[in-house]
Amino acid sequence: MLTPGLKEQMRESHELLERTASKGLPIYGVSRGFGPLAEFSADDDPTRHGLGLIAHLSVGQGPHLPRETTRLMMEMRLRGMTRGFSGIEPERWSVLARMLNAGFVPVVPSLGSVSASGDLIPLAHAASCLAGEGMAWSPDGGSEVTTAREALRALDLEPFVWHAREALAFVNGTSASLAATVLNHVRIRRQCWILATLTGVIVDVLRGNAEPYSEVVALARGNSAGHRLAASWVRAQITEPQDASSARKLQEQYSLRCVPQIVGSVLDFLDATDAVLSREVHGCSDNPVVSTDGIFHAGNFYAVTQGLASDQHVTLVHQVAYVAERQLALLVNPASNGNLPPLLASRPGANSGLAGVELAACAYLSEIRMLSTPATVTPVPANVDNQDVVPMALTSALRVARQLDLADLVLGSLGLAVAQILRLTGAQATSRDDWTATLLSLSAAFEDDRPLHGEVRTVADALHTFAGEHVR
């Protein structure tokens, strides 16, 4: 919904663009071509010029972007246009907004963007769908796809007819990489809660020393907000805190003892990035900038901010997954799990407990590490050297999403082990949040060997749901 103020800003921007174009002055993408062809005249027909831009960029490949990512991408793209720097007529913008609000979500391929002149290729596919070409997600909100025309028809919508400036403003934005980065940002924070919460259960059940999670320790280290929050999440699961005199040993291994420092630092880095990403979400990332002060041909479409944020995310995800895998190793080892059976097998030798689960978790962690190379240091110049530097932001964000999927599986594996130690120690009756009872209900005791791949994923999904309820 546009406020009167936003409408006026947009109208002023649009009218300035029209006046400038009527004088025959060069305007990128309106009176001139695109990219390195900006020195050449545009097509005389603005609609054909806009559709040509969308058509030549509709070359994406690979798996679909998740529906949630594409919807957020569209929302961000349209929001950026309302700031009055895009030269878009408010009435035309409202048509696009109605399409999104009605539930129309394009199917967009994930591969092809270098994020330098915005996320051109994924946004071009979205624009093409809005015009009735390509595929769209089923309007019923499910995981099925249909043709864009069928989805539009089901929603009683007409295909959008793009004009040159509208098409350029839409595809020139950084919204694909930004949407993926923001969603990753939220997922990492939730994984922090999962790891800290499982840590608390482990410490409680094994009667570990609770002193590392004291507020005094956080104060001594500098009282970081992340440290305090991580420690509080751990403490929330410790029903009978053990001090040095009553704990099973004076100092636990670092994968338990240093969780406030590790998870706390991840949270601090996420907090530091919040303001940067928020600025991008509320900014205008297309080109040229059309203001009442004039038309400025510039580079706001260069998505380096989210590229650098995603390159930070890769190290944060690794920290969470690394500690989770190490805690799983601790729980399956009688030398560190309080003399519970090796591999938490109910009948060691007759069955193998979590042997396969631990092996798979090692493989997930290995792939997370393989995906940890910063994408912003891997660019290839393109576009006849017009885009001689590129940030690879969407590539970076999609790589983080893959890491997060793998980290979910490591955390699911750890959750499965935590459920088993609750059973083996008889601690399941201990008063805790309801989520521990649910965790126990998702996996039966390991009396006999059985395939556990489904249970790992079920537990991972449940933990993600619990995290969503506790962390916004």
Summarize the structure.
The chain is mainly alpha-helical and 472 residues long. The chain has 17 helices and 6 strands. Strands 1-2 form a two-stranded antiparallel sheet. Strands 3-4 form a two-stranded antiparallel ribbon.
Structure report:
The chain is mostly helical. Helix content is 56%, strand content 4%. It has helices spanning 4-22, 46-57, 67-81, 90-101, 120-130, 148-154, 164-171, 175-205, 215-221, 225-235, 254-257, 259-281, 304-331, 355-370, 393-425, 434-441, 453-470, and strands spanning 61-64, 109-111, 135-137, 145-147, 289-291, 294-296. Strands 1-2 form a two-stranded antiparallel sheet. Strand 5 and strand 6 (294-296) form a beta hairpin. Helix 8 crosses helix 17 and helix 13 (304-331) runs antiparallel to helix 14. The radius of gyration is 26 Å and the shape is elongated. The mean pLDDT is 93.
